[in-house]
Amino acid sequence: MMVDAVIAAMAVSGHENVPVIVTETGWPSNGNNEAETVANRNYAEMYLKGLVMHLRSGMGTPLRKEGVAGAYIYQLFDDFDPKKNGYSNASRSMHGGQNWGIMYNNMTMKYKIDFSHSERVLRNHKELVEMVLGLLLLVTGVLLLL
């Protein structure tokens, strides 16, 4: 619904063909008080798995059938400050002490989510590699054979 609201507003201002990229989407894995019962690891994992599945499907919304151009998950790691043996004051004040990271600070995954094997991602990755190699050829005049 929110994506369609943005698309509708863009169409009114004459920008209906601009790609939409969703930034800072996520779900907290825990909160700072008992009232935040929905801020838990199970809901965070369900949300992220659903997001990845939706993006892989290529299905869009009623106003944007092809879907969004991409999404950035908030955030990679929790805002942990090892010097203070806790979470940073900035994180506490901005997010109420919630943990939004999809990985622990030791770089292990919090959830079992497969971010790979997406045809859309692989296609875009291939296009990026081809573009970079083309730029290298243009700039250096040297053809790199892989």
TrEMBL record:
> Any transmembrane segments, and where?
128-145
- Specify the superkingdom: Eukaryota
Q: Does the keyword Methyltransferase apply?
A: no
- MF GO annotations: hydrolase activity, acting on glycosyl bonds
Q: Which UniProt keywords apply?
A: Glycosidase, Hydrolase, Membrane, Transmembrane, Transmembrane helix
Q: Which PANTHER family match?
A: GLUCAN ENDO-1,3-BETA-GLUCOSIDASE BG1-RELATED-RELATED (PTHR32227)
Q: Which family does it belong to?
A: Belongs to the glycosyl hydrolase 17 family.
The name of this protein is Glycosyl hydrolase superfamily protein
**Native organism:** Abeliophyllum distichum
